[in-house]
Amino acid sequence: MASAATGAAKPGLLLLRRTDATFIAALRARFRVHDFYASGAALPDYLTAAAAEPDPPRTALVVAGGAILVDAAFLDAVPSVGCVVTTGAGVDHVDLAQCARRGAGEIFSVDVADHAVGLLIGVLRRVAAADRYVRAGLWPAQGDYPLTTKLSGKRVGIIGLGSIGSQIAKRLQAFGCAISYHSREPKAFAPYRYLPDAHALAADSDALIVACALNDATRRIVGRCVLDALGPNGVLVNIARGVNVDEQELVAALQEGRIAGAGLDVFQNEPHVPPELRDMDNVVLTAHEAVFTEESRANLQELMIGNLEAFFSGKPLLTPVLPP
Amino acid sequence: MESLGVLLLRPLDTYLEQELDRRCRLLRLWDAPHDRRGEFLRAHALSIRAVVTGGGSGAGGDAELIDALPRLEIIVCYAVGFDHVDLTRCRERGVRVTNTPDVLTDDVADLAVGLAIDAPRRIPHADRYVRAGLWKANNGYYGLTNQFSGKRVGIIGLGRIGLAIAKRVEGFGCPRTRQQAYPNYTYLPTVVQLAAVSDGLVVACSPKEQSRGIVSREVIEALGPRGVLVNVGRGAHVDQPELVAALAEGRLGGAGLDVFEAESDVPQVLMALDNVVLAPHMGSGTRETRKAMADLVLANLEAHALSKPLLTPVV
């Protein structure tokens, strides 16, 4: 048996995400890493070079968010790739129909759910705005902060009842909120009321939370009609993808008071945030960070390696996403 | 109760004031300039049978006021805390006291959990970052924060509000929260133990004398550099100078504060920190709850006027 130093080459891995030194070292200990960002090459050249190797890589570890698209062109360039591992719950940057298998993280759902609840409390109770009020010295100068509106007991409508949506529902139930949802199909065991479309859901909700995956059916699922149905006392929370919402319509609705407020972690064209939102006290804006806690990052790295090793040893992936 | 002379100490709520004006003989203390208040009280002393106060430090209802009103029968607090009322003097004089419990439990609990999420997850900080254009300027970078779900939450004071907080945090998978009932002495080793086994502490106890300073230097140290403190009780429950120093020096991870030693005075040091969330005592500050509180104040006054049992008496 050849020793590790001179023996069988480590399996190849395309690395298309920025990461820290510890993680790269952990990857290099197990795989032959083709580091895209370090190469400085254009994507097509990088893929072609990897594919030209005698033992081309069978795995790819890809950043989420849309900077890299694992589409037909990508897969055609490196046909050896049989497993794509990505981060974040969203797989809109991966053409699932083109992919055999992929791995993702269930573990993110709690952090994203927590963030959604934080945004909802923030927009209804104006926590961030009140914090600014205090920091600006306005409490002694102008007295009590104006009255806001109660969260407990509000009707919450969730678009998308996957792992994130379910975690949000579970949390808000403990606040005495009445939960309804809309998804492609009703979920057999969900103890919440199902509405057949986003418009009906919005009409029946005080707070609408977007927690669905981004695909053709959900692009701009929240547009003018849904916002008008949500109404002047309703608020929107988006922790899914910016393009799940028609951003222009949202800004207009907020400016015109046709909805009462919004909590947004995601935007159409990050990190660009519509300037009109930046002066509003009835919105909470965060920097697409719902998933990024220290705890989930540590888990994430273990999970990515776990999925890769499972693939190479022919075992079932830890967190597979099967093509629809 | 049209003949009931009611003294309102300061503007509290428009609806409440309008109803008091409509249904009672309302006197507003702030109609007199500050330096003429003594005169004002003397002039109206014989007609004032009820006083309505707000909450928080300095809300009124002290011995001096009680002594100035020989016909005083009842003090009605538009608040759940009544630490601003001299209960001893009230008992001596036979003056009844009511507060507004229960109707604000949900709101205070909601805010407490909001602060408990916001402190480790830095939502208000991120909001400032985005508004300042830093997200764009830093090419989409925002650092990591700390998880909330599953953390061990210790609740100091498991009354109505503490229980409502416990119910909410259990929805986040936080392990069964521990209550700490504080015995009747000043040094409380068990609160330190609670802090030592908690990732976050939420102060939700009622303002009793024995809970003054309950969050001491030792408790803050036991909570540690990754620990979070949330206070929706009273500023007096916490050793504020210690808290401020610990936060500034990184000996405590973060805090969410709705109450302070002297409101509306928030230490400058805190205003410069990113790991704290500062709220201007707004635990019950929603339209729904303030209306419910106002209705309860009015109901207590009416019960008193009709010699019926008070709805929510303290004394």
TrEMBL record, chain A:
Domain D-isomer specific 2-hydroxyacid dehydrogenase catalytic: start-end pairs: 60-321
Coiled coil segments of this chain: none
CC per GO annotation: cytosol
Domain of life: Eukaryota
Keywords on record: NAD, NADP, Oxidoreductase
Gene3D superfamilies in UniProt: NAD(P)-binding Rossmann-like Domain
Protein name, entry field: Hydroxyphenylpyruvate reductase
Organism expressing this protein natively: Miscanthus lutarioriparius
From TrEMBL, chain B:
All copies of domain D-isomer specific 2-hydroxyacid dehydrogenase NAD-binding, residue ranges: 114-283
InterPro entries, per the entry: D-isomer_2-hydroxyacid_DH, D-isomer_2_OHA_DH_cat_dom, D-isomer_DH_NAD-bd, NAD(P)-bd_dom_sf
Residue ranges constituting the D-isomer specific 2-hydroxyacid dehydrogenase catalytic domain according to the UniProt record: 44-314
Family note: Belongs to the D-isomer specific 2-hydroxyacid dehydrogenase family.
Top-level taxonomic group: Eukaryota
One term under GO cellular component: cytosol
UniProt cross-references to Pfam families, sorted A to Z: 2-Hacid_dh, 2-Hacid_dh_C
Keywords: NAD, NADP, Oxidoreductase
Protein name, as recorded: Hydroxyphenylpyruvate reductase
Keyword Nucleotide-binding: no
